[in-house]
Amino acid sequence: MNEQRLVTLLGSPFVAPVVLLLLVLIGYGHTLSVPFYFDDYSSILESPSIVSGGPAAVWQQFSIRFLGYMTFWANYQIGGPSVFGFHLVNVTIHLTAAILVYLLARQLVYRTSAEDGSQARWRMAFIPLVAATLFLVHPLQIQAVTYIVQRLASLAALFYVATLLFYIYGRVATAWYARGLWMGAALVTMGAALFTKQNTFTLPLAVLLLEWVLFGMDRRRLLFVAGLGIAVAAGLAGVIGLMYHINPFSPEALAGVLRGEASVIGRGDYFLLQLKGLFHYLGLYVWPVDLRVDYNPPVLPVHFGAEHLLFAAFHLVAIGAGVFLVRRAPLISFGILFFYIAHLVESSVLPIKDTFVEHRMYLPLVGLSIATADLIHRFSPLIGVRSVAIAAGLVSLLLLGATRERNEEWNDRLGFWEKNARLSPAHYRPWSIVAKEYLAADRPNDALTALQRASEAKNGGKPGPIRLDEAAVVTFVAALIRVGRMKDAMAVIDHTLSTAGSINPLNRSKLLTNRGNISKRQGALSDAEADYREAIRVYSTNPVSWNNLAAVLLERREARQAEEVLREGLSANPSNPLLMNSLEVVTKALGQSSAPPPASGK
Q1: CB-based contacts of 407: which residues, under 8 Å, 6+ apart?
Q2: Is 296 helix (H, G, I), strand (E, B) or coil?
Q3: What's the Cα-to-Cα distance from 501 to each of 260, 504, 514, rounded to whole Å?
Q4: Number of domain units in the chain
Q5: Taking the CA atoms of the chain, what radius of gyration do you get in angstroms?
Q6: pLDDT digits (tens, 9 = 90+) for 340-365
Q7: Which strand (E) or helix (H) includes residue 259?
Q8: How far is 358 from 349, CA to CA, in rounded Å?
């Protein structure tokens, strides 16, 4: 194929959507059956507002991320706890985001191109397609796509990119009504982004960057956009203040809401960690190997040293290069500066519990992909159009292969967490979660060993008394029960319930349910019933509590009461398969006095 035909082919408006669709099918088509992972349970499957609530309940629980969680609510109402629908939406969001990156890159290329004729056509054909492809197939994107609850990151990025694209359309529109429509659409998608994930609060800065890169240093325009951004930020702070009953102009109070989670890391320590973290993100973009959910935790406190000076110097040079290149290489300049803007909320001075996670790269990869595509394109005069196209294709295929292979790992939850624990042996969470997976695989002794490793990680790598968070305590109790250590399990439950201050309602419900299970095994049905009922009172959307209460009632030949309990449980846990199967057993028991009770949940 000669160069002219290659340019014509890649420049066709139909090629990009077809190529991106094929790539997403190859890279993510086999992820539609990937099981739920850890935060998927607490945020979706075990959330009363998602399972049995409505939009008002979702707003009350997740107001700052209302739109993102409403998509989970809609998923659950349509398809129940089936993973297929959740993954289908996630993959569709990722594909749509890649198409928007393609359109944004086209606008950036068109409005910054200095070439004409065939060179301009090649640039317009090559850079947007390569940028969208890199964004779509890079393995760093997996966590925001295959890990269901991180839809928040990909959906927020989709709205973020759409806002920038619509702003450009409105900015260059000549008719007043077209300008108004596009700017109105930009405001809508901006609002959607802000109520999906907090990292999108940098949108006004990204709009300012577009103004500078595409339209120059028009002081009046920049002041107008900056003023608008300040007004939007102040309005948002006011809304958050009203929603959370805080002083919206108190940095500490506002930061607490924006983080959405507690952190024991100080601002200074967090900032120093992020100097290295940002460099590490760039390293994983260039060489994406040994990717994982949890990286080894930081050693606190962080002592300022020579490495922090080097990392700070690197970032200052990179930002300086972005400023210097704004007229010489505007797409590379945009990509560099966009990377830092997109990381500003989560990787600067607002401490977040997890100091380094891959899904934070989803939005910054928009800028890096565009900059990389432009950089590759610049080799065209040196090695020719076909050679550059082949090189870009080979890089994309390698990344696609890595993405497909890593997605395969997500299908095996036990193997996935074993690998994470192996790669991050000093991190508490992989060990605590692999223990839960061992328990699900009926390997309670391995679960107890993994919990011992988790406790050592919590103790700074040293052996000592078992120290676990409340969720891991639930796993610990269940493993003790499985190996027949009933007395030890009961002691742990009683100690935890009596000494812990504010236990998460779900975990309290699980501990009460396990205590009921022990009582039931020992024949103390009245004690078991009392614990199950208390577990239901504490957390009504724990289906195991309902199921096990029904099992006790059936064991006492109270089938009619068991049926009522299961129907009430299904009203709190619609379409739950455990309760539906047990209800079928109970219904038969009402006609057959010798029917066995439903199996106890675990």
Answers
A1: 27, 28, 30, 31, 34, 142, 146
A2: coil
A3: 21, 10, 19
A4: 3
A5: 27
A6: 999 999 998 888 888 899 999 999 99
A7: helix 251-259
A8: 18
